[in-house]
Amino acid sequence: MAQRREVFLTGGTGYMGAALAQELVRRGHGVRALMRPGSERKLPGGCELVHGDALRAESYASHVSPADTFVHLVGVSHPNPSKAAEFRSIDLKSCEQAVRASTQARVRHFIYLSVARPAPVLREYQAARAEGEQRIRDSGVAATFVRPWYVLGPGHRWPMLLIPMYALARLYPPTRNGAERLALVTLEQMTRTLVWAVENPAEEIRVLEPRHIRRGFGEPEIAARRATA
After folding, report:
1. In this structure, what DSSP letter does residue 40 have?
2. In degrees rounded to 5, what are phi and psi of residue 38?
3. Which end of the chain is more exposed for a tag (fewer CB within 10 A), N or C?
4. pLDDT < 70 positions in the chain
5. How many other C-beta atoms lie within 10 A of the C-beta of residue 128?
């Protein structure tokens, strides 16, 4: 049985957050989830609710403690190029506020949902997530960056049409690395990976790419604290 963790979770009512919260509670961890009033029904039972605004650290920072782990999953749903401004006003800003709140609470481990890169599309999204990672590095807290490309699950299945193309790309040397770097993962694989990250805190900066997520996260790559990715 893994050591019990006290987890503060943002994005707990979302696509990945609800599944993660449910599994953490099932495994005996304490989960305190940030949400706006009116979203209570979306959160799995067993979680403690914290009302606040993910874009304003002062609205929830005092409620982060006694968490030892902060999991930040807030972001624009269904990213596409038309949402470039939102990637900065929501994704990046919420990350900056989460770093402020977690630093104030002296959280030991920060888990950040980032994105695989480089990729030929969604450059603004990749840039915002890369800046988020840098804010976390600069804070000095130990962190795990989980970098999926696309997560298959309920309501998120259209990329399954691309699976035959991925298979062909892996057979062709010039495209093999790209196919591996931007491999599709499932919601179940992501939930398992995030739970593993909670139960196995990083000591510095740890990066989990799609290849780790798909095979059970294997041996994670440890990046230097100030390295660029």
Report:
1. G
2. 105, -10
3. N
4. 1, 155-181, 217-229
5. 25
Q: Which helix (H) or strand (E) holds 44?
A: none
Integer Cα distance of 219 and 185 in angstroms: 17
- Residue of 86, 94, 98, 88 lying closest to 128 (CA atoms): 88
| Alpha carbon distances (Å) from 94 to 10, 132, 157, 171, 203 | 9, 9, 27, 40, 24
Chain segment 113-151, per-residue pLDDT in tens: 999 988 777 899 999 999 999 999 999 999 999 999 888
Helix boundaries (H) for 70-208: 84-86, 93-104, 123-139, 163-171, 173-181, 187-199
Instruction: Kindly give, in sequence order, each residue whose CB lies less than 8 Å from that of residue 48, ignoring residues fewer than 6 positions away.
Output: 30, 31, 32, 33
Two tokens at 145? 């960056």
**Residue ranges of the alpha helices (H) in the chain?**
15-26, 84-86, 93-104, 123-139, 163-171, 173-181, 187-199, 210-214
Fold type of domain 6-151+184-222: Rossmann fold (3.40.50)
Query: Is the peptide bond prior to 66 cis by the omega test (within 30 degrees of 0)?
Result: yes
Q: Which two tokens stand for residue 86?
A: 């939102």
Domain boundaries, the chain: 6-151+184-222
Angle (deg, nearest 10), helices 123-139 and 93-104: 10
